[in-house]
Amino acid sequence: MSSDRQLWVTLSTPDERSGYYVELSLDNKILFVLQAIIPACNRVFKTGNILTKRFSMIRDQETLNQLIDIVDRFVRERLMPIEQQVAENHEVPEEVIQEMKDLGLFGMTIPEEYGGLGLTMEEEIHVAMALGRTSPAFRSILGTNNGIGSAAVVFDGTEEQKQRFLPKYASGEWVGCFCLTEPDVGSDAGSLKATAVKDGDHYIINGTKRYITNGPVADTFNVMARTNPDIKGARGISAFIVEKGTPGITLGPVDKKMGQAGSLTCDVIFEDCRVPASNLIGKEGDGFITAMKVLDRGRLHIAGFSAGVAERLIDDALHYAIERKQFGKPIAEHQLIQAMLADSKTEAYAAKCMVLDAARKRDNGDNVSTESAACKLFATEMVGRVADRAVQIHGGAGYISEYAVERFYRDVRLFRLYEGTSQIQQIIIARNMIREAQ
Ligand SMILES: Cc1cc2nc3c(=O)[nH]c(=O)nc-3n(C[C@H](O)[C@H](O)[C@H](O)COP(=O)(O)OP(=O)(O)OC[C@H]3O[C@@H](n4cnc5c(N)ncnc54)[C@H](O)[C@@H]3O)c2cc1C
Q1: So which residues are the catalytic ones?
Q2: What is the pLDDT at residue 2?
Q3: For the structural domain made of 3-154, what CATH number should be given?
Q4: What is the pLDDT of residues 402-415, one digit of tens each?
Q5: CB under 6 Å to ligand 1: residues?
Q6: What number does CATH give the domain 294-437?
Q7: What is the pTM of this model?
Q8: Atom of ligand 1 nearest to the CA of 420
Q9: CA gap 159, 136 in Å, rounded
């Protein structure tokens, strides 16, 4: 699509000079946001006579296409060129994070009334697939604000909590994180040991949380802790939001990981950490239910993202296969290579279809616990197979870090582990099937 002209798009904020400077295509689609003055404002109106619709339009294909075009181009032109640099430095450059904020990417799932884009699940999946075409470390930076770090407040927070936290997540000013896992408690999250003891109008939190994504840079910690020690299982757990700077929080060293360099995790330790009772999310004892709602949504996001990563890996493998010659012809003409390409394409397409179907069902208000688990199980296992074939198609080059497939092969391994391992997804699916049949 060729570029026609550039346009200043104002935002409906009190400051009329705020806005985006965008490049438009011949048919008036936003090709790229060249400059953003006020970040993460969802209400976009034109100054001329071209854009008349809100940027965060739900179920408006044209507006969604514009957003995806912007993300596609941002991924291609800003993120893909620095993938290797991020992997080597273990850091996403600050100016790139700022650009993500300017594009509103930290607030994709935050409702519009709190400054986010208010994307539906289906829309979010399309954007996740677009983001999947580059290193997962970039998504991880904004992933918690759009998912596990904010969703508990979105779903079950009080109006006061929503007003206080959500606009800051949406703009990217604050980073949220989700603290469920502990040193002795992973898959069996209902048995967690961290405690929150009521003391007047405060709770005192004690416990260690492990592998917390964005913990090292978090401004708020969404913590699951046991408020009722008499109930050993899930019903004794409550959810809290704890602000950075609250006395009693210590961060462990940044974890050294197999992949996703640039995405940071660490232990978060709470020692006699006094949290106002007003920071309880939902009702006492409902914290595990909140956490499961958060993960149900997160699983669909990870599945959609995995489908996007698979497309990237297929592209890389296909182009390599077309260029690389052995036995006098491009390896793409060898049928065993074609089989790997075809299997990867087929599986990625299946994942994309199933996750979009589940997302639509969720948007329609259906309970998609089974579908979310099925999507995460299939899509994350699928992208593991696709990454493996991409390395195989690259031959020895696939084992050399100069080629992106080597890095992606390690990066995608995580998807089968966090937000519930593949085995836990199988258990959820089977348990739901049996319950429905009884
Ligand atoms: C990089 C990274 C980022 C993470 N980010 C976060 C975060 O932000 N917040 C957070 O709270 N957690 C986070 N986690 C933790 C992650 O969610 C857990 O690691 C995951 O849920 C698995 O728990 P575990 O590691 O304790 O494994 P375990 O539960 O000890 O499982 C070990 C193995 O046993 C299997 N297993 C366990 N129970 C069963 C069963 N009943 N039947 C069959 N098999 C079983 C598992 O599938 C797995 O294969 C992160 C982890 C990593 C590595």
Answers
A1: 419
A2: 42
A3: 1.10.540.10
A4: 999 999 999 999 99
A5: 177-181, 186-187, 211-213, 257, 265, 414, 417-421, 423-424, 427
A6: 1.20.140.10
A7: 0.88
A8: 21
A9: 33
